[in-house]
Amino acid sequence: MHETPRYLDPETIIPIARGSTEAFKTGTWSNRRPVHMQKVSPCWTGCPAGNSIPRALLMASQGDLDGALSVFLEESPLPGVCGSVCYHPCEASCNRGSWDGAVNIRAVERAASQFGHAKPEVLTTKGSDQPVAVVGSGPAGLSAAYHLARLGHPVTIYEANEELGGLLRWGIPEFRLNPEVLDRDLGRLSSLDVNVKTGITVDAQGLDELKATYKAVFLAIGASASKRLDVEGANLRGVLSGLEFLTAVRTRSHGNLSGKVLVIGGGNVALDASLSAVRLGAREVFVACLEQREQMPASPEEYEFAMQEGVVFHHGWSPTRIVDEGGRLQTDFIKCVAVCDEHGCFNPTCDESIIMKLETDWIIQAIGQQADLRMFSGSGIVPTVMPGPVQTDPSDMETLVAKVFAGGDVVSGPGSVVQAIADGKRAAVAMHFRLLGKEFPEAQRRVILGAGPGFSIDALFRGRKGWDPASVVKFEDLEPLFLDRRERGSAAVLDPSLRKRGFEEIVRSLDSVTAASEAARCFFCGTCSACDRCYLFCPEICISGGREGGTAAYAANPEYCKGCSVCSAVCPRGVMSMGEGL
Amino acid sequence: MKRFITGNHAVAEAVRLCRAQFVAAYPITPQTPIYEKLSDWESAGELGGVMMRTESEHSAMAACLSASLTGVRTFTATSSQGLALMHEMLHMAAGLRVPVVMAIVNRTLAIPWAFWSDQTDSLSQRDTGWMQVYCEDNQESLDSIIQAYRIAESILLPCMVVLEANFISHFMEPVEVPTREEVDAFVPSVAIPRRFDMENPGYVAAVVNQAQYRDFRRLTQEAMEAGLNVIEDVDRRFREHFGRGYGLMDSVQIEDADLVLVTTATITSTARLVIARLRQKGHRVGLLKIRIFRPFPVLQLRSVLERVPRIAVIDRNISLGREGIFCSELKAALANSSQRHMIQGYLAGIGGTDVTPDVIEKIVLHALEMDKATDGPIWIS
């Protein structure tokens, strides 16, 4: 019997598919292909510390607060601190803001720090023979020490006080930052190679010794000197300085306040002082500041708390003198009609014809802080001509003295905690590469989040595939058809009537269930949640993938994908996008 | 037994004798008598199969190819506009490799409307992947239908048997109609692969990629190429069985010919007389009838015409903008000959005009006297 020639085999001469049409490959129809490319969210790029918020919230939403904490620990040692006091620029840029209110990211971070268990991960051991010193243990110093240790460097922290924390411990009242939260964050440093020397104040000579002992030094002593009013009577008895007052309150070395208290200033220190004064028994507390309410640097949340506690605000006033009126302090003000000039620079314009007088028992001046660099004179850190704050090369944060780096408030003046954390991280990476004799590698440019300047240290050292950190998912990139509307969850707030009795924290942590529920509001913009929509909607049934380990990925089989872009259209979070010529 | 019947009737007889199980058709002049005859037999319980009266030729072919995929022997017939309407489904039938047999009664394509013989309708289906057989008379039409079933089912390609309007379809001739037993002995019982099978379902209109498409086309072309041998083999067996046969082509006195006249279909019968008459007058002329158009018997034609210096081709069809289609095909087939031929195309019989012996003689004599062939056709009227 002859073998049937191929052109006569009934099963092969026509395009017949039995059981499955997979014999017929339609992938050549289009050169468009879906690309599963994770991107970054506005909250992520909005976080100076570079916290991978959507990834952390994705884990939190699944009840995995350990995982969420470990994600926060990728970029910052202080999730508890940021979860309590951060001014959360992430939430300001949240894509959900225009939908039903930004996700309460800060509260989720706080809950992760409170209920999650995770250890910081060492990213490399390459720095192990390059010991470094960190001077100061505020947020910048802690962040630098933390990341330097994760990069393998033996780190020694020098702290003037007996306990770590710097501004976090001594400058932020307990009702805003629970010391337990700070201690929990600090406790995680113990797993890293970080040596702590407290009670040591480093001066110019000390700095020289550190330079001789360590391969590099990071200077992060903060801005702890309160500025004083340049008006008559600013040195009268009863006129206190904001940060010193807060430190005294924190150390329980300040007695109770009676009568009326005037706080001058519009920042967080001013409001912290006003609320502290309330707790110390002040009968009436006034805050007078140059700014109108919406211009105040203080956080709106704290302003609300102050209002709830009866603090009276006088906006748009500039003090001109303080007079001792028989044991009481009278402050004269003129009207401030503009805080900034036409260039947007701080340059108040006042109308002297409009005046106000306030008579109080105490005055707390909280008009800003600066670095106290007197002990570093002659070290070369501070320019001899036109002395001012410590200057650094913005590209690598190195000071005028080689191998001495600096960051945080000592360089930039009073800023935010999260900015100081960002400085510490950036300095740690710069110091690491300097000590390894490397320029900033190209790899670092590839982990810049959005337009920068934030970057991911975790991605830099551990690598991350299928991720385009330069690409920021906008609201228009989302598919809101799949998104519910649910009101923003708020953490419990201590009743105003109960606050005055002590320094109990005002904003409590979410419980773990509520934290997961709030995290679940997150769109996870740009972060694949393995929701399977691309897989389910693909008309060609040619998408495969899902979660594998910690990462989720999907891919279209190029033999069948016609480039119809349904998967990309239904991706709720802008991860599936269409590419050309693939 | 010889019967005096029309070509259409002869075709219908062949279909019934071959035990076609499924006939789907739509009436169109001049094919309608085939449809009517089969319909009469069906209503009288004499057909043996079922008829499906579709709303169009397009549907008729869709029905036939679908039925054929279930392993059923099928038949349809059409003409002219009906064939043109069916065009899309012709490609599908060939692509699906179904051995559907179809009678085409050549008729002019509109516009203008007319009902006369003209081969352009079937020749327009040249590239659909159907085998095409052109018949000279009523007997050949009947016999070609019988052969077509055996050929188509062997090679799994559809086959159209082409007869001319009026000259065959409606002219009555004595036709030897074989007995059922004779046909049963020649046409095997139905063994068409069942590709639509409820027990083993499949999807046959699938989408393929470029390379897959190319490979399917290539297999179909291989089947077409193999088809020539099958056609010759079936015709040889037919001759053994019935005592008559037709070959891929038929040649008359071409061995010593100075000129060979190439014809198809009914013009051939007239030409046979003319060639005999011219031979008597001392002209060394011969005749070649092309019977199989697809697959085109290139090598066989080249071999037969190898030593013939002059060739005149009569076409009852035209590819507008070029010439008669058989002429073009023949020129292409001989392009790689070692011998140079003078090939002159003539258009005669277009629109069913009568091609008389005088017309053919005029053509032959004209071609004999030419020094050089014209590139385009010469119209004979």
Short description:
Chain A is an alpha/beta fold and 582 residues long. In chain A, the strands form 7 sheets. Chain A has a 5-stranded parallel beta sheet, sandwiched between helices. In chain A, strands 8-15-9-10-11 form a 5-stranded parallel beta sheet.
- Provide the helix percentage of chain B: 40-55%
Counting copies of identical and different chains, the oligomeric state is heterodimer
Q: What is the CATH topology descriptor of the largest domain in chain B? A: Rossmann fold
The strand order across the widest sheet of chain A is 5-4-3-6-17
Describe the fold and architecture:
The complex is a heterodimer of chains A (582) and B (381). Chain A has four domains: 15-38 and 528-579, Alpha-Beta Plaits (2-Layer Sandwich), CATH 3.30.70; 42-118 and 465-519, Fumarate Reductase Iron-sulfur Protein, Chain B, domain 2; 132-224 and 371-438, FAD/NAD(P)-binding domain, CATH 3.50.50; 227-368, FAD/NAD(P)-binding domain (3-Layer(bba) Sandwich), CATH 3.50.50. Chain A is built from 21 helices and 21 strands. In chain A, the strands form seven sheets. Chain A has a five-stranded parallel β-sheet, sandwiched between helices. In chain A, helix 2 runs antiparallel to helix 3 (65-75), helix 3 (65-75) packs across helix 6 and helix 12 runs parallel beside helix 13. The mean pLDDT of chain A is 92. Chain B has two domains: 2-242, 3-Layer(aba) Sandwich (Rossmann fold); 249-379, Rossmann fold (3-Layer(aba) Sandwich), CATH 3.40.50.920. In chain B, helix 1 packs across helix 2 (32-43) and helix 9 (267-280) crosses helix 12. Chain B is globular. The mean pLDDT of chain B is 96. At the A-B interface, loops of A face helix 8 of B.
